[in-house]
Amino acid sequence: MDEPEFQEEHYEYVPDPDALSAAPGRVASIVGAAERAAANVREQAESRARERIAEADRAADHRVQAADDESEEILAAARAQAETTRNEAMETATRLHAEAERVREDAAQALARARSESDHLLTGAREDAAQWRAVAQEETEALRVSAAADVEQMRAETHRELERMRAAATKEGEAQIAAGRAEAARIAQEMSEQTELALAARREELARMHGEAEEQAKETKAHARREAREITREAHAVANDVLGDGSEVSRNLRELSVSLRNNAERLLRDVRLTHGAMTARLDQVAPGGERGESASASGRGRSEGPGDDLDVPEFIPRV
After folding, report:
1. Domains in the chain: boundaries
2. Sequential DSSP letters for 177-228
3. Is pTM beyond 0.90 here?
């Protein structure tokens, strides 16, 4: 804000009887105008400072709101991706359980088939033995005593064969069942390990994304707060400058008012003294010529005397 320039004007003194009555009014009007100007300058400075501070507060609120909205969007995206990953993991686990159940059913069916084949072989062996026994009885009825050992041997061999076949069928069925169970357990273990690995990887990815989102949100909020503090600090600095300029102008105007009031009082006092001195001299001097010369001399003496001691404010340069 530019400081008002004041120039001191010099007026030639002209004795006027009516000037004494008009001087207080002029001084009062000058003082009132100076005070009004100071009040206007102060109000304008305060209004500008309030506007700057309000604008800085609004800008800071907008920045903080934008940072909060962006962080909410990032967190919502992270939650949505976490939900999608969880659903995919659950679907994978369900599919793996279904496959394990299918393998278990296949093993049960293989066991049933093995048992059925074993029973069929046993039945066939029994039928064959019965047929051989009937044929042997029919053909060797006469030779039973001599062939009893052969029949017992054949019976023992048949029994051993049947036992061997039964044991082989049972062992094969148990082996198939054990293999099916082992395969089902292995597949279930592999699927469980794969599921755990996938879930662990997804958890790590989600944790990393969540950490990055929180870090980005913190950085955005910190940046917005720094910018808001910078804007507020600049606004306060501008407001302080404006208030300082207004205060300086107001102080200068007050000094000018005090100076004008002091000068007016001095002028009035000098005018009264000069008027009294001139009146006394006019009363003492009788001739008209001497009276005029005395008045001129007294006027020159007055203009060279008290006018040099007028009060001038500090901010006005002295000539």
Report:
1. 19-309
2. HHHHHHHHHHHHHHHHHHHHHHHHHHHHHHHHHHHHHHHHHHHHHHHHHHHH
3. no
